[in-house]
Every structure is written in structure tokens, then in C-alpha cells.
């Protein structure tokens, strides 16, 4: 049997009477996790089966990124430790007997000096590199990805993502391990508070790597352009966002489905003689000279889905048609 920090400490001890287990601060009655999740969201505590430390992201583990309070360890739902030591001073009293009596000398010495890691004491939003600059935390639209190209890595870091995105305008890290990049948006992004992007990078737990549907965004240029309804397309003016007709499409002329559809291609397909043309679901084109019964204008915000062929152009979403009209 061996003892001491080398065998009983946080990252050395695996079984038995580990010193670190004695630091349990979890309230009595806290339920044990059954799937490795933990923390305030579900109120579950970590067990040895999953790793006794509850990390910032609410996942049990036993690595330094999971267990250090400086990196977000939740001590109410698992075991936590610190990566710094404190100064401990001790006093010694020495008595010396002489012919003239007893002289008492007091001395003080430091038995342990405060030390700290040369790395930051907590995760940060990495500033980028010579090409990419940090823009902040952005929320992706439900069901849509802002960029089409990606790499995923269980050892993802900001540096790894930006290297993979070399030559592109934008790079974003989401879910901790996913790196997405491209030159333009294929789905809208909305800037939000940084506290929405606090998953730790698995390859460097001192960096933040987004979260679910949220990405830490970097750019070689400026802020991303948001998709919009162009005022005119091929000589046609934006008419509005229309609902479907009663039991039918809003327009009953020719139609087509193309995965590379844009508003310009809608207009070309329908031809200059057709008064109205519009799109839905990013790839469906409809033409006609009048609207079928029951089709009425809807709020413009209902037509909020980007075209598959041009992520900066918006068209209709469910049961809506983004329409342009020729005079």
C-alpha cells in the first residue's frame, strides 16, 4: 500500500481511499448521474464510473480541464481542485538559557511558497492569428448551418480550426469540436452574448469553442453580411411575402426545383413575360401572372430562409412565398 500525493492525489489515485474523494462538497441527497452529465442543469453529481469531476460544460471527467476550479469545475456536483498553492508560514520559539537568565527568540520561516501555472487561470476567447480576427459569439438559425465546409476533431483547438480554414473569409467553432468555414453565409447568424459560447475546446481547455447552435466566429474581413430581400432582381421589384392559396400554391404557373437556386435564377426560369415569380424552401421556384384565391400578404419576417444557391438572399419559409413582380 502506498500513500502521499504521488499516489493518492487528484490525477494519480484511481481506486481506494483517494485523498481527493475526501473533499466532496456535494449536498446530501444529490442524485448520481446515470449518463455522465452533471451540474446545475439536471442537478446530478458525478460518480467514479464517469469521472468524479463535473466540468464547466456539465460533463463528468477526470482530466485537469474537468477538475480545476480555475477552469470551471462545479464543486457542488463533483470533486474539484485548484492548480495553485498558498503560502504557509510557521513560527518557531527558541529559548536559550544563560547566566543572566532565559532569552526567548522568535523566528518565522515560510514552508511553502505560492506557485501558479504560467498559463491563464481560466478559459478565454482566443484572439485569432495573423489572418483571422475574433468577431464574437453568434447563434445559428435552427435547422441551418451558416457555412457548408467543416472539419471535426475530438482534439479541436482554435489554432487547428483557423489553419483548416486558411484561404476562407470566415471560420467558426461550435459544439467544442466542430470547425465550420466558408466565404459567405448559407444561413443567418445572430450576434449574442459571449456566455452562449462557453464549451471548452477539447484540445485546449483554456479556449472556448462555441456550444450547441452557437459558434465562436473569426473573420479575415469584417462582420458577416446578413441575408436580405434585394429591392430588385432582374428588373423585378420585391412584392412581399405571400401565403399559400387555399389548397394550392400561391402561383399556378410553371415551377421548378433546383439545388443551386437563387432569386436571379427564379427570374430567368419564369421569363420576362411572367409578371410574378417567387421561391420557397431555398430551391423551389414558382411563376404566374396572378395569385390564386386565398393567397395574402404575410409579415416579411416569415420569409426568412436563405436561397441554397446564395446564402445572402432570402426567400420563403414554411407555407410562405417570397415574391418579385414585374411592372
TrEMBL record:
Presence of keyword Repeat: yes
Presence of keyword Repeat: yes
Alphabetical UniProt keywords: Repeat
Name the UniProt record assigns to this protein: WSC domain-containing protein
Membrane spanning residue stretches: none
Database matches in InterPro entries: Sialate-O-sulfotransferase (IPR051589), WSC_carb-bd (IPR002889)
PROSITE patterns: WSC
WSC domain residues: 131-221, 235-327
Amino acid at each position: 500500500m502506498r500513500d502521499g500525493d504521488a499516489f493518492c492525489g487528484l490525477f494519480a489515485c484511481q481506486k481506494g481511499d483517494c485523498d481527493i474523494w475526501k473533499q466532496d462538497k456535494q449536498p446530501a441527497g444529490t442524485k448520481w448521474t446515470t449518463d455522465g452529465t452533471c451540474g446545475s442543469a439536471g442537478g446530478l453529481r458525478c460518480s467514479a464510473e464517469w469521472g468524479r469531476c463535473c466540468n464547466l460544460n456539465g460533463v463528468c471527467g477526470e482530466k485537469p480541464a474537468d477538475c480545476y476550479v480555475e477552469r470551471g469545475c462545479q464543486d457542488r456536483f463533483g470533486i474539484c481542485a485548484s492548480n495553485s498553492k498558498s503560502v504557509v508560514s510557521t513560527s518557531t520559539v527558541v529559548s536559550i538559557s544563560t547566566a543572566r537568565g532565559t532569552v526567548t527568540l522568535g523566528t518565522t520561516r515560510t514552508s511553502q511558497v505560492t506557485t501558479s501555472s504560467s498559463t491563464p487561470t481560466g478559459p478565454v476567447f482566443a484572439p485569432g492569428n495573423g489572418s483571422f480576427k475574433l468577431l464574437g459569439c453568434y447563434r445559428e438559425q435552427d435547422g441551418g448551418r451558416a457555412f457548408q465546409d467543416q472539419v471535426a476533431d475530438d482534439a479541436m483547438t482554435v489554432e487547428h480550426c483557423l489553419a483548416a480554414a486558411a484561404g476562407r473569409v470566415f471560420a467558426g467553432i461550435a459544439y467544442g469540436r466542430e470547425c465550420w468555414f466558408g466565404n459567405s453565409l448559407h444561413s443567418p447568424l445572430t450576434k449574442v452574448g459571449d456566455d452562449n459560447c462557453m464549451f471548452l475546446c477539447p484540445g485546449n481547455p483554456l479556449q472556448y469553442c462555441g456550444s450547441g447552435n452557437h459558434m465562436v466566429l473569426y473573420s479575415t474581413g469584417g462582420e458577416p453580411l446578413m441575408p436580405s430581400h434585394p429591392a430588385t432582381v432582374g428588373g423585378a421589384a420585391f412584392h412581399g411575402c405571400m401565403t399559400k392559396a387555399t389548397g394550392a400554391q400561391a402561383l399556378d404557373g410553371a415551377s421548378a426545383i433546383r439545388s443551386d437556386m437563387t432569386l436571379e435564377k427564379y427570374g430567368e426560369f419564369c421569363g420576362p413575360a411572367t409578371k410574378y415569380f417567387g421561391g420557397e424552401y431555398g430551391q423551389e421556384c414558382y411563376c404566374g401572372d396572378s395569385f390564386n384565391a386565398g393567397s395574402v400578404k404575410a409579415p416579411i419576417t416569415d420569409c426568412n430562409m436563405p436561397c441554397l444557391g446564395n446564402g445572402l438572399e432570402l426567400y420563403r419559409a414554411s407555407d410562405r412565398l417570397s415574391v418579385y413582380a414585374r411592372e
